[in-house]
Amino acid sequence: MQNNPPDNPQCFKCKNKTLPILSFASLSPSVLRMNLAPTNADIARTKAIMEEEEQELRRYDEEVQHARQVFARRKALRQNLVERRSWLAPIRKLPVEILDMIFAEVPNTSLNIGGLQSKRSERCRFGVEAVSLMLTHVSYHWREIVSAKCSMWSSIDWSCWTMKKDWTPLLNIYLKNAANEPLQIGISGSRADIPALTTVKDWTGTHDLHFLQTLARQFPRCVKLNIEHPRLHPMVLHHALNGLKFEDNVVFPCLQILSYDGDAAWPIRTSSNGITTLKHRFWDAIHHAPMLKEMDFVTIVQLTQLDTPHSVFPSWDQLTIVRVSYLESYTDFRTLITHCPQLEDLKVERPFGWDDGPTWDDVIEPVVLSHLHELDLKPKMPQDLHGMLVSLSLPSVKRLGIGLGDQEPGDTDSICLVLQSLSSMLQRSSSVLTSLRLIMRQWSLCERSWVWFSSVLRQSPSLEYLALVLGGEVESCVDVVQHDVTAQLCSLLSLSNDHRRVCLPRLKTLRLEVDTSDTPNHPDVNILGAVLDIVEERSSPHDPNAQPGRDDVSALRNIEIGMGVQVRRDQGVLAIEDRVTALGGNFDVCEYKDRFWVTITIGNVGWHNVADVS
Fold first, then answer.
1. What mean pLDDT comes out for the span 319-331?
2. What does the pLDDT average to over 420-432?
3. What is the C-alpha separation between 351 and 403, in angstroms, rounded?
4. Would you give the DSSP letter of residue 137?
5. 391: closest CA among 312, 453, 329?
6. Where are the annotated coiled coils located (predicted)?
7. CA contacts within 13 A on the Cβ side of 505
8. Is the pLDDT of residue 320 over 80?
9. Closest C-alpha among 434, 437, 353 to residue 609
10. 606 CA to centre of own chain
11. CB within 8 A of 33, min separation 6: which ones?
């Protein structure tokens, strides 16, 4: 195959050829492959061609050099234009106070070193993001403003990556500009496809350990610490703190928020008398943090061990927010609520059943959490939820979320007992509950359990937000009202029934998700019509000549209904839309997570969040 030169390039302006082109053909590959020597005539002719081609090559090199100068000139002109546009930019007329406010709204000024998510793929790559430092390169004026704004240098996120370069000097720049500003530090782990540093031996002598030790020296300035490294052994943190001295030996005097998602293991020391005690400087420092207010961690085991002879749980009266993803036992739950009396927000999850929880017949002395405003419980088994509910008295709770896992089909007794425990807890607490979320995807209500569910609602007269998620299968012998739950609820909320008092008179938002996939015929019109009847009862009509609505109840403004079947816009549904329009509202249908959602919004109050309850 011959390698003939391409056509001579032309000038785009005058269409003239830049340089003359030679017409010599390339040597044939077959000639080169033959074991033949050129003759004297071939040698003479080839040398003459080579001399002319070398001259032409030199002319092209000169042209390329000229083109490079043109490109350099073009680049300089573009830079001049950028600078002149910057000189004329209106932002230069802004006073320092306005620029300071603008920089305060920069979304992410953290120093981010380590694994960054690639925009084109799901794989991580090593990278460095230093937005604040980049802003200082714009101009001397900006450098003065940004450098003086300590809050733009006080957030540091580091992903362990086995760094090939020591980025500690960049970290020191941020620490210097942060001055005395409290720090927010994040330490995250590498992804599965990145070499992991899991032991002290792996860290020894690495840039990562040097970086971590530099961060550890700043722990006294840290107000928020976030550790998300499932493979980061606590001994590494213990090793990083070794040899460092702090004032009054308090490592975290300013720490207010701690989020820890890492290895819960640590070395345990056993003394001669057989008492096990904790020997771990990091967690000992956390135990003695005087300003700690909020904790988010995997397991409570970190909190129940101390380097003391008796492993006494610390008296953390200052804790106001606690979120635990994994509880080993009911004893841990009881320990948590007993030693944190100032809790305002508590979230507890339990993926497996407890072995030491109270039975249905046990009498438990409840713990009073008088400051708790928000409670979120997500156990796996109904009996675990029962143990939590009977252990609590919550006179100030306003937002309550309950999510249950698996349940044996047709286990109506446990359903009734759990709802009874919930009703008793609300009655015992003199509840001022304003928001209730019941997520029971594997549950089905029967007549007896519906009685207790009604009692739960009647114990919550201040409720403004109600979300109910039901589902699951039951045995045929059980008297099920699962598919009729909407009608039952609407009957309970109706103002026309002869109730001694109105149920949920302050209700403003209603969210229902029920399994209607096995219901004969499409339930669209029946369900929507029943709900809309309640909306009309509780809303004052727009017609001034019509009879005014009830003034002792709040208007039901936001309704969201999830169905297992597609909502068909037939004659009945169109009539529902007309009724909503007559009330001055909006009617919308969307599909989300294999379910069809109908949203009704009355008035100007906007509310549409299908993913609100997971």
1. 84
2. 86
3. 11
4. T
5. 329
6. 43-70
7. 9
8. yes
9. 437
10. 24
11. none
Q: Output phi, psi for 472, to 5 deg.
A: 100, 170
Cα three-residue angle 561-472-611, rounded to 5 degrees: 35
Residue whose C-alpha is closest to residue 283's, from 247, 255, 310:
255
Query: What amino acid is encoded at 97 in this protein?
Result: E
Residue 80: enclosing H or E segment and its boundaries? helix 40-88
Per-residue pLDDT, 142: 86
Q: Which amino acid is at 99?
A: L
Give the count of beta carbons closer than 10 Å to the beta carbon of residue 74: 10
Q: Which residue has the higher pLDDT, 103 or 614?
A: 103
Bridging pattern class, strands 294-299 and 276-278: unpaired
Q: Where are the beta strands (DSSP E) in 458-546?
A: 465-470, 509-513
Entry field: residues in the chain: 614
Whether 472 and 409 have beta carbons less than 8 Å apart is answered as: yes
Question: Looking at the DSSP assignment, which residues form a beta bridge with residue 513?
Answer: 469, 562
* pLDDT of 390 above 70: yes
pLDDT at residue 312 greater than cutoff 50:
no
Strands 399-403 and 374-378, sheet pairing:
parallel
Q: How far is CA 576 from the centre of its chain?
A: 37
The phi and psi torsions of 224 (rounded to 5 degrees) equal -140, 125
Q: Quick one: which H or E segment has residue 576? A: helix 571-582
Instruction: Name the region of 354 (left: φ>0; alpha: ψ -120 to 50; beta: rest).
Output: beta
In this prediction, residues 353-365 reach a mean pLDDT of 71
Rounded distance between C-alpha atoms, residue 414 and residue 424, angstroms: 15
Among the listed residues 126, 129, 236, the one whose alpha carbon sits nearest the alpha carbon of residue 174: 129
Task: Give the pLDDT mean for 582-590.
Answer: 79
Average pLDDT over residues 251-276: 64
Q: What is the pLDDT of residue 86?
A: 83
Cβ–Cβ contacts within 10 Å for residue 406, how many?
11
| pTM assigned to the model | 0.73
pLDDT tens for residues 193-236? 444 555 555 665 677 778 888 888 888 999 999 988 655 656 66
Determine the Cα angle at 429 with ends 428 and 432, to 5°. 135
In one-letter notation, the amino acid at residue 190 is S
Whether the per-residue pLDDT at 537 is higher than 60: the answer is: yes
Are residues 299 and 264 in contact, defined by beta-carbon separation less than 8 angstroms?
yes
Longest dimension (CA), the chain: 122
Placement of tokens 């009539």 in the chain: 575
The three-state secondary structure class of 543 is coil
pLDDT for position 255: 92
